[in-house]
């Protein structure tokens, strides 16, 4: 996939959050370092001690959490596809090195292991396969709930339906940065020419990879125009019925009630 993204400096808050995220997963940093050195996903994954699939998953997660891609990839080709860090990815590596120094000082300052255990419990972990960055565009009262207009990088809008108390708890207002969570099983895939459900959120992209599983649904990796990636689940029969194959344009739909939101504490 050719990299057509115009790179701009990432906000320091975004870089800090990303650096903390990869710091909790040392292999992610090792993967970024190896991509910078090797220029190949296959060679970088091997050098970082990861499987090729795990490397793709890690890159997708990091790119999705950023406002712009950290890794630019070319799918396929000799060596399993080329890859390089974007300027934002290079800045993230530099910030991580600074955070490592700060982390060492924090460890020395902790009075008790319980302090560090508490910090660990406060770090977010989620089973949702899709974790995207976004920002609040607008908030609309909807009965006892609120409909939150969420702007993804590139300007695409989706809606999330949450309770009014959740809106207050998350302190949501226009401009607030969000973590958007969507489970893979909640995405409904269809060919772009098919009739869409206007009541559902819609994201358009193209199928980048289909991972066929022997004992379950296929994992479908969808590249969005903004550089983010979705992971969906579908059976081989569902894909065949929609004539969806690698390279196909695809529509992913999901309900506003199936969008989970999180904010940084």
From TrEMBL:
Q: Which SUPFAM superfamilies match?
A: MOP-like (SSF50331), Winged helix' DNA-binding domain (SSF46785)
Where is the Mop domain positioned along the sequence? Answer: 125-191, 196-263
GO biological process entries: molybdate ion transport
Q: Where is this region: Required for dimer formation and molybdate binding?
A: 126-134
- State the UniProt keywords alphabetically: Molybdenum, Repeat, Transport
Looking at the keywords, is Repeat present? Answer: yes
Family matches, as PROSITE patterns:
MOP (PS51866)
Q: Which InterPro entries match?
A: LysR_HTH_N, Mo/tungstate-bd_C_term_dom, ModE, ModE-bd_N, Molybdate_resp_trans_reg, Mop_domain, Transp-assoc_OB_typ1, WH-like_DNA-bd_sf
List the molecular function annotations (GO) for this entry: DNA-binding transcription factor activity; molybdenum ion binding
> How is this protein named in the record?
Transcriptional regulator, ModE family
**Family per UniProt?**
Belongs to the ModE family.
């Amino acid at each position: 996939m050719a990299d057509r993204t115009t790179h701009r400096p990432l906000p320091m808050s975004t870089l800090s959050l990303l650096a903390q995220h990869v710091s909790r997963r040392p292999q992610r940093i090792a993967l970024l370092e190896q991509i910078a050195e090797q220029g190949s996903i296959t060679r970088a994954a091997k050098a970082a001690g990861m499987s090729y699939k795990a490397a793709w998953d890690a890159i997708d997660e990091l790119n999705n959490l950023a406002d712009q891609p950290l890794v630019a990839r070319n799918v396929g080709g000799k060596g399993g596809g080329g890859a390089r860090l974007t300027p934002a990815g290079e800045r993230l590596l530099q910030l991580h090195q600074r955070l490592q120094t700060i982390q060492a000082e924090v460890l020395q300052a902790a009075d008790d292991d319980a302090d560090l255990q508490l910090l660990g419990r406060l770090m977010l972990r989620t089973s949702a396969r899709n974790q995207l960055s976004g920002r609040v565009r607008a908030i609309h009262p909807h009965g006892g709930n609120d409909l939150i207009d969420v702007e993804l990088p590139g300007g695409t809008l989706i809606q999330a339906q949450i309770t009014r108390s959740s809106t207050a708890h998350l302190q949501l207002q226009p401009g607030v940065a969000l973590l958007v969570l969507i489970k893979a099983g909640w995405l409904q895939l269809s060919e772009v020419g098919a009739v869409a459900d206007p009541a559902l959120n819609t994201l358009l992209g193209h199928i980048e990879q289909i991972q066929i599983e022997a004992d379950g649904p296929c994992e479908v990796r969808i590249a969005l125009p903004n550089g983010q990636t979705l992971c969906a689940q579908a059976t081989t029969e569902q894909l065949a019925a929609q004539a969806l194959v690698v390279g196909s344009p695809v529509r992913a739909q999901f309900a506003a009630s199936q969008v989970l939101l999180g904010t940084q504490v």
